[in-house]
Fold this sequence. Notes:
This is Nitroreductase family protein. The protein is of the alpha+beta class. Helices cover 39% and strands 15% of the residues.
Amino acid sequence: MTYKPVPLPDRVQLSPDMSLAKLRDFRDYMRRRHSVRDFADTPVSREVIETCIEVAGTAPSGANQQPWHFVVIGDPAMKARIRKAAEEEEQAFYAGGGGDEWLAALEPVGTGPDKPHLTIAPWLIVVFAQRYGLSGGEKRKHYYVPESVGIACGMLIAAIHHAGLVTLTHTPNPMRFLNELCGRPVNEKPVMILPVGLPADDAVVPEIAKRKKPLGEILSVF
Length: 222
């Protein structure tokens, strides 16, 4: 393929005042996003989930290679298999495999080896990063894969919040069992599991999760 420029197809520019007003509204809405572990089993339409994936698919990526694949799982039996495999890995992690420093860092978050959200949430989204492409049996190098997939995941999480749903970034370690369970090829690496749904009536979040660094700690201006 060769470079072929086309006119900018969309323009979304706003007046300075409108830009700032809309941005502040968006900031305030995103501040209401929380990582949730307590899900209701209320059904969520497949169309909503697929639309969230479409949003993620618009993310920028190195050389526009879009090195990601999303597996959406609603089947209860498959969710149960994923939970069983994930909890086996988590048992080893929390039994000491994660190391004292990591486990101490997690203590205020209140996590543990039991992962009921993997079966209670109506949907699981498993994110895979394509470490290299496969075309006709030949490998094709992909560029900036972690960065590209990270951007897509951020946009996916924002889309889930925009849909009025909640999610959680779940990263059992190691995660290679997900390739077999999800039927994904060897060139793909599982990155995370996102349970998606509505929060339970008695859902809670750790108090520490409400503590975000102030702007002065995360911003430098020259």
